[in-house]
Amino acid sequence: MTAQKAEKEKAAKRKRVVITVFIVLVFVCLLAIAAYFIKELIVSKYFFCKRSVKFIPIDQACDGTDDCAGGEDEITCLSSFMVNTTFPVRLTSARQVLQVYSPGSGWRSVCGEGWTQQHTETACKQLGYTYEATIGQLCDCLSGHFPTRVTLNTVCDESKFCLNSSVCTSGSVVSLSCSDCGEVGSQDRIVGGTDAFIEDWPWQVSLQQGGQHVCGGALVSPRWVVTAAHCFSSSKKELSRWRVVSGTTYIATLGGSYVDRIILNGNYDPAQNDYDIALMRLSSPINVGVSHKPVCLPPKAFGLPAESTMVVTGWGYLEENGKVSPSLQKASIPLIDRAKCSSPTVYGSAVTQRMICAGYMAGRVDACQGDSGGPLVHLNSSRWYLVGVVSWGVGCARERSPGVYCNVEEMLNWIHTIIEKTHTAYK
Ligand code: ARG
Asked: Ranges for the SRCR domain (predicted)?
């Protein structure tokens, strides 16, 4: 009898303990969640000065004036660079003929005589490509001026290996294929659909702040992302707030890379959206794999005709004034003739040489808000090339208002100079 009573009491006690523990746990969880949201809220509106232990409005970080003691709020900020020198190495035309610049003689194709694998590797590295599997071929594809064997000045610094100037007797030039970019497996899973898989567009990244998708971007090497300059408006200039999420089809907010540099094109004009391009450097390179791969930069003078098929990808709005898409989308759109896009009934003089248009005059298919900074790519000889960067448009998918993209071909000199200057590019 008494033993039974004691047993019952014990059970009741145990129950009470379990309930109390449960309530405490729930309470702690709620507290943690609340703390997380409060922190997110504060962090999205304020910058914390560690040394002087105070908060300042986020707009005051990276505004050019020191608001924290020691100017802590002006240290980890984006920068902007104008490039007025000519980057001395380029690949030109769809044949990828290597050309070298010297102030005296301008651009000249490089003669194939004495060209070695070592030259190929250094030249590819110089152009921002990363590793192995680079192919240097001799090509009897002379166009324009006769090639002269030239010294690859800037290549010399890197490998202590140069070619001497002399006359090119064979007449064949070097065609380079720096092949660690733009290749993906077969893309036969989607027919006429709009859902996309990251494995097919492995350069696509999501640029985020406070767990929010802000802009798209494209990996052009394991450490560099090309995006749009207009993604970095006033509250978005501080580096530590950015994360670059790669390798995901469904937008994720965890596991993004940190950023140690954001460089805007020094000529960027927010009023006209001219030179709307920026480079972001990841604090450490991504591991290249099936869902993480750089896209190729286009050669100079790619010579793409109007109506060439392009693909634009991103997590942007599914309709004007809509919402960001949870899963990656793609759309095939044709390149639009410059004259047509600059006609008075379309965009007139708003379209500069640094812009290209793609889409349909009838509307219906287009990039939209949130796609900005993302890639417009073109498939050529089984490689994808970054032809444009999503920049602007009037509304989305409206009639006679196609998408306008930053013209990557016009920005190659800037891109190569920035990546070369910031040495660690090829690690
Ligand atoms: N500026 C927009 C953004 O910030 C992208 C605009 C693209 N618009 C268009 N109609 N193609 O996301």
From this structure: 80-128
H or E segment and range at residue 206: strand 204-209
Residue 274 annotated in active site: no
Q: What tokens does 44 get?
A: 């999205």
Distance separating alpha carbons of residues 382 and 110, to the nearest angstrom: 25
The residue to mutate among 371, 398, 401, having the most atoms of ligand 1 within 8 angstroms of its beta carbon, is 371
**Both structure tokens of 264:** 């805007």
pLDDT tens digits along 196-255: 999 999 999 999 998 899 999 999 988 999 999 999 988 888 999 999 999 999 998 888
Tens of pLDDT, residues 62-92: 998 999 998 999 988 999 999 888 887 888 8
Beta carbons of 163 and 100 less than 8 angstroms apart: no
Question: Distance between CA atoms of 356 and 347, rounded to whole angstroms?
Answer: 11
Where b means 16+ CB within 10 Å and e means fewer, 78-96 reads beeeebeeebbbbbbbbbb
Task: List all residues 6 or more positions away from 316 whose beta carbon is below 8 Å from its beta carbon.
Answer: 216, 324, 325, 329, 367, 368, 369, 370, 371, 372, 374, 390
Verify whether residue 372 is a known catalytic residue.
yes
357 in contact with ligand 1, CB cutoff 6 A: no
H/E element, 77: none
Return the percent helix, strand and coil in the chain, to nearest 5: 25, 30, 45
Please tell me the distance between residue 126's alpha carbon and the centre of ligand 1 in angstroms.
Answer: 32
Could you give all domains of the chain from N- to C-terminal order, each with its CATH number? Answer: 89-178 (3.10.250.10), 204-293+412-425 (2.40.10.10), 308-409 (2.40.10.10)
Model's pTM, two decimal places? 0.84
Tens-digit pLDDT profile for residues 302-356: 889 999 999 999 999 998 999 899 999 999 999 999 999 999 999 999 999 999 9
Question: Is the pLDDT at 112 greater than 90, yes or no?
Answer: no
Number of the ligand 1 atom closest to the C-alpha atom of 359: 11
Q: CA 170, CA 140: separation in Å to the nearest integer?
A: 9
Q: Are 258 and 74 in contact (CB under 8 A)?
A: no
Q: How far is the CA of 231 from the centre of ligand 1 (A)?
A: 10
